[in-house]
Amino acid sequence: MDDEEFSFERQRKLLEKVDVLGFEEQLKQNNLYPLKPKEINSLDISLTYKCDQKCRHCHVMSSPSRKEMMSKDIMAEAVDTVREYDIGTVELTGGSPELHPNFTWFIDRLGQTDAEIVLRTNLTAIKTNEKPILDILTKNRVTINASLHSINKKNLKTKKDQEIYDKSIEMLKKLNQIGYGKENLELNLVYNPSDYNLPQNEKTLEKQYKKKLREKDIDFNNLFTLTNMPIGRFLREIKNRDKLDDYMNLLIDNFNPDTVKNVMCRELVSVAPNGRLYDCGFNQALKKPIKPKKVDKITKFNEKELINRKINLGNHCYGCTAKKGSSCFRTQKNPKNTKPQ
């Protein structure tokens, strides 16, 4: 089954049919329902679903063939929203945000606000327009959250994965050369498991990565671990291998009610390339709309209405609440009006 056949409707039906305690019911049993925002401090903006890679775990099912691109008008509206509502953090994601033709323009405009800018990158996409991208990132002190799924090339089974690894290591070295990985230009690595398990202990893994990459003269600030969400290509894979029930039960067995207070959907709003608003990037991938409908677009942004909404939940939400919680929320960290200097 290709990406187009594995539609968001099919994914939602699969998740609804899994014979497990529903996430809403789980919250009710723990006196945590309804789940509502604490504040709107972050915008998670998906500029495009186009990507120079096609990862097997991608929840958005990004690829080089995707065409969705945010219009310049919507980007300008997003900048105005950030300024008007004193949004603390703007995280740019995709796909590969760097592939958007107006990427550097957008960074420059966001740099004129008080928000901290965070780029979520796969590292290889920077190469497509390297010098202008690196220049605009350093000029605006953009925090980089970079995916690096392995520190051992020998563990990668395919030639393509090994080539991506080499390009990623090369880009990390270039980022270090221009000051990233130090105090004033933050470079964080993002890890998610390559198998069907939950991530290892974050601090233990960070120490391993720092030791191994130091051997290559590479420094970074922090490592964040992400749980593979049971949506997108990862959902298709675990379904095809008859692992869906096992994986969902793994998430449920490790449900931690203490994580609910800090899940990212309580502090951010996700913006799709077409300007639609979602409770998070995972709901965006599943096309689970934000409610109420009167504030479901960036052009209708209303902080008071958004703070008072109920967050739209589903069984995929177990992915953010297993063990100590997925680190998505920790990448959204900048309070209002405290932009790094």
From TrEMBL:
<dbReference type="InterPro" id="IPR007197">
    <property type="entry name" value="rSAM"/>
</dbReference>
<keyword id="KW-0408">Iron</keyword>
<protein>
    <submittedName>
        <fullName>Radical SAM superfamily enzyme</fullName>
    </submittedName>
</protein>
<keyword id="KW-0949">S-adenosyl-L-methionine</keyword>
<dbReference type="GO" id="GO:0046872">
    <property type="term" value="F:metal ion binding"/>
</dbReference>
<dbReference type="GO" id="GO:0003824">
    <property type="term" value="F:catalytic activity"/>
</dbReference>
<dbReference type="GO" id="GO:0051536">
    <property type="term" value="F:iron-sulfur cluster binding"/>
</dbReference>
<dbReference type="InterPro" id="IPR013785">
    <property type="entry name" value="Aldolase_TIM"/>
</dbReference>
<dbReference type="Pfam" id="PF04055">
    <property type="entry name" value="Radical_SAM"/>
</dbReference>
<keyword id="KW-0479">Metal-binding</keyword>
<dbReference type="InterPro" id="IPR026351">
    <property type="entry name" value="rSAM_ArsS-like"/>
</dbReference>
<dbReference type="InterPro" id="IPR006638">
    <property type="entry name" value="Elp3/MiaA/NifB-like_rSAM"/>
</dbReference>
<dbReference type="InterPro" id="IPR058240">
    <property type="entry name" value="rSAM_sf"/>
</dbReference>
<dbReference type="InterPro" id="IPR024521">
    <property type="entry name" value="ArsS-like_C"/>
</dbReference>
<dbReference type="Pfam" id="PF12345">
    <property type="entry name" value="DUF3641"/>
</dbReference>
<keyword id="KW-0411">Iron-sulfur</keyword>
<feature type="domain" description="Radical SAM core">
    <location>
        <begin position="37"/>
        <end position="258"/>
    </location>
</feature>
